[in-house]
Amino acid sequence: MSAQNSYSQKTITGTVSDENKMPIPGVSILKKGTTTGTTTDFDGNFTLSASTEDILIFSFLGYAAQNITVKEQTVINVVLAEDASQLEEIVVIGYGTAKKSDITGSVSQVTAKSFKDAPVVRVENALQGRASGITVSGGGQPGADIKVRVRGVNSVTGNNNPLVVVDGVFGGDLKSLNPDDISSMEVLKDASALAVYGSRGSNGVILVTTKKGKSDKTKFTVSQFASVSSFAKKIDKLNSGQFARVLNNEASDQNNLPFTTQQIANLDANPIDYEDLISQTGIGSNTQVSMSGRSDKINYFVSGNYLTQEGTQINTNYKRGSFRANLGIEVNDRLNIGFNVYGSREYTLNNQDAFARFNGSILLKALTWDPTSPVRDANGNYIYRTSNANNGYNPIYNLTESKDEVIGDRLNATLNLNYKINDNFTYTLITNATRYNGNTESFRWEKDPAQGVGSSFNILYYNNYKQTTHQISNILNWKKSFNKHNLDITGVYEFQGAVSKTNAYSAFDVNVPSFYHGDNSNNEFFTNGGARTSIQSYLGRVNYNFDNTIYLTGSLRVDESSKFLKGNRTGYFPSLAAAYSLNKLKFIEDGEFLSNLKLRAGWGQVGNENINALASSSITNDSGLYSFDGNTAQTGQTLIQIGNPDLTWETTTQINAGVDFGILQGRFTGSLDYYKKTTKDLLLQTTVTGTLYRKYENVGEVENKGLDISLSGDIIRNDNFNWNTSLNVSLLKNKVIALNGDLNQIPGNNLVIGGSQARVDVIKVGEPIGTFNGYTFLGTWKTNETALAATFDRVPGDPKYLRDENGEFVLGPIGNGLPTTSWGFNNSFTYKDWNFNIFITGATGFDVYNFVSAALNGGAAAFRDNLSPSRYNTWTAANETEIPRNGASNLLNSSRWIEDGSFIRLSNVKLGYNLKNLIKGVSKLEVYASGQNVFLITNYSGYDPEVSSTPITSDPGISAPVDGGAGLDQGAYPNPRTFTLGLKLEF
């Protein structure tokens, strides 16, 4: 070294940290063009000698390298940004992991980073709009079930929920999980990816990976946010004074009006709005604490979470507390042991689905309740019923005085062991035990306490449900690379069993809300039941790639289910897939625009056995009653269900063709997938013709086909400002191909409100599942049609419906509640210490059956009067509109109530700021404000087109087909508008 160079050397010090200001130990720092350098210590600090002309290269696995010229600096502090291409390179697949570039199937990944900008309290909301091929819908009631569907719906009356696998364990419940515990979620969509789960994979698979300790220094994280929620809109209806005037104007005796001038003046001055009375501002809070870290041999992640949400309806709320402890131990170079424990408690108060719904939900009853009647009389007593409008009981009384509590306790313990037999061969053992204990304690006021026994009913109900599941998975994996050949072979033996028990007690016509009740009357009922099920499985899978160019995957899973009788228990589920990477072609390798291009194709089969444990067997009731002589009842066994010994697997066959691409050196990436899946031998529960008996059969065929589109990238990327965007689009067409034999259609199992027993859905060949069934509304009979109307016993002003050649109403498909297009558009902006997120979702190509509108227009069933503003524009001889005359009888199941459900929603908007160097020892302190469901663009006149009511089933013994009930609004709990203020603290 020359004297001049020696003279220019100076000591450089500094610290290297990540974007969260956490120091990074072990960062390599080299002088460019030399092998001279150093590494950062445990606290991220470094010291080295360098000249002003030296360029220092800072690099560390998982982070983008930085080059910094020394110049006149003596202190250099560096913040390394995460390298997305490295972090997302590894994805979780069934029974292992793989490089994203090596995957042959269709897999969508949602990382914690993609939903960190939204105050997510439900895992389902983290998936919504962030992964193509997935639709998420549900009501706004805290703690209520949210429906997740992967590439459409297969089963007519069965369960279409995807399988949830948490850290390798089957049967996870998304609702009970804490989103802050999640590192990533992979959604397996096509059969080549799903087939490794065989009978479990027919509805898609969601793989959830929880967080592990990564930093060599213990990191504590505390986050807290508070929220306020409210109804996003109000339903347009007559107010108190308007309704009173209408009743006066239409009174048959104008000398004896229902309301005096003074009464109407009082109603104008003090209107009674039951929509306001049943709603409230819901206050929520979420507290999350965690500790994570690792040493040379041990990594750990421990967290606790407490969530509370008041509903936007009075006397409703949801609470969830959870804890998680993930521990990993590297015993030696060959053996690793992990132990995960997760526990949660959920509490739900007054889910509106628990209340009588034959006249719609309790919210619908409030919307149609008499606005001239106060909640209480002058003496402070509830007014239970009125002579106007809805003839049910006062909904404020129902909801305020009832107490329906549901408590769910879950404890999950998993032990996993990974042993490296040699450099190529590894063995993994996963053992799990899960215990769930659910209790319902309910007392619901459904009648006037002053009325006698039998006049209606109050319900006392207690239920205890216990389920224990256990799982053992043995996984052998062999990997070998030779020359340009890469081979990965996996073999699995797996067993899972479940035991469930339920005990219930109910009593009717009870006026004392006490569980210590008994009068030995016929109004008390005791029930108990249970089930024991198991599945034994074998899997073989081979992954092969040649020179990282040609990729082949083949698998075969064999499942044996106890739900089928011997001879039908075994299902075989194969898959094949191939991919070809064009990245080594010169126009891509040397190109500046196209940086990645891979073609994929796959085929496979998966099964479904989502039926009850005794579906193959006949079931009797030992306390049944029958009269042989028509007069005297005899006690004995009665048949409840007819067994089907030939019952077997429902099978879905799927083909998938896709392309993955990257442009501008990977700055933008995307994928496009076309799929077609056909489900045959549907497990369909029907009522046997001519009897009241039920039976499961393998009948029918359903087809789903569509496109999944994903695009993401950095539109702007520089030192101070970054704009990252992602777009996910799902196009879907669902169709029933065949039913049993020559049968063209079967009635659905969902009822219209009002107790008429009319079905509102139909399963029909050529139509989608979820097709609405009803009469086609043609407007009103006009004056010039008086003679024709009279032939049908109608007069001008009556509603007119489509009729056949015999003059009978035509009953048939009038709409569908399954969206054909759904999408999500996420944009994240960072500028220095500011961050901003805007997330927009939407859906088109579906209808909503708006029974709220039907009820408000009155004239049918329990809805005795018309509270709709359309009452001002009803048919008269001088104003012949398409709105039927006052007093005309309206059909509730008609196309008059079908509306387009298309919408665009601003699902989340967030503004945050990172406060630096505010508190010593605090590496990150972010404060933020956000809004959810900020605005909704739609032509739908109800609260929210995206929500569906839990359908009223025509037979309590047959589960309501929830996908047949998609798009039914019978007073669904609306998605609230929520504003949140929070902070995140790391130290």
Automatic annotation (TrEMBL):
Residues 100-205 form the TonB-dependent receptor plug domain. This is SusC/RagA family TonB-linked outer membrane protein. Keywords: Cell outer membrane, Membrane, TonB box, Transmembrane, Transmembrane beta strand, Transport. The keyword Transmembrane applies. Its main location: membrane. It is a multi-pass membrane protein. Gene3D superfamilies: Carboxypeptidase-like, regulatory domain, TonB-dependent receptor, beta-barrel domain, TonB-dependent receptor, plug domain. Residues 363-933 form the TonB-dependent receptor-like beta-barrel domain. It is found in: Cell outer membrane. It holds the Pfam family Plug. Belongs to the TonB-dependent receptor family. InterPro entries: Beta-barrel_TonB (IPR000531), Beta-barrel_TonB_sf (IPR036942), CarboxyPept-like_regulatory (IPR008969), Plug_dom (IPR012910), Plug_dom_sf (IPR037066), TonB-dep_OMP_SusC/RagA (IPR023996), TonB-dep_OMP_SusC/RagA_CS (IPR023997), TonB-dep_rcpt-like (IPR039426).
